[in-house]
Amino acid sequence: GTRFPGKVLTPLRGQPMILWQLDRLSRIKTPHTLVVACPASKENEAILALCEKHGYHCELANGIPENDVLARYRHVAQLYNATEIVRVTGDCPLIDPQVID
After folding, report:
1. How many CB atoms lie within 10 A of CB 83?
2. Alpha carbons 97 and 101: distance in angstroms, whole number
3. Helix, coil or strand: residue 29
């Protein structure tokens, strides 16, 4: 298969796909900290800037290979002293906050 670079920044009805997702995830009622965990790369700096502009936390995982998703989640979980983690991919804008609760 082929990858679709930048898909989470692709506009969907006038807003980047990742903002639709973050807006939905911010409706989770269970106390939480919502963090976007991205590989550290020049391309992902745009995601970091977008998250910061809209008040969302984003962490670029320096020194962790892009394909090591588990290490990236572990790194960010340790930064935030997380005891529970919910993994949602960045291209899932229809996630239901009630399902996560």
Report:
1. 6
2. 6
3. coil
- Would you state the structure tokens that stand for residue 65, as one six-digit string? 């290979």
Tokens of 25: 């995830």
In this prediction the pTM is 0.84
Residues 6+ apart with CB under 8 A from 8: 16, 17, 18, 21, 47, 90, 91
pLDDT at 98: 94
55 Cβ contact list (under 8 Å, min separation 6): none
The CA-atom distances, in angstroms, between 99 and each of 27, 42, 88 are 11, 33, 12
Q: How far apart are CA 44 and CA 46, in angstroms?
A: 5
Mind listing the pLDDT tens digit for each residue in 62-101? 999 989 999 999 999 999 999 999 989 877 778 899 999 9
Q: How far apart are the C-alpha atoms of 14 and 73, rounded to whole Å?
A: 29
Q: What is the residue-averaged pLDDT of the chain?
A: 90
Does residue 48 surpass a pLDDT of 80?
A: yes
Cα–Cα distance for residue pair 98/95, rounded to 1 Å: 9
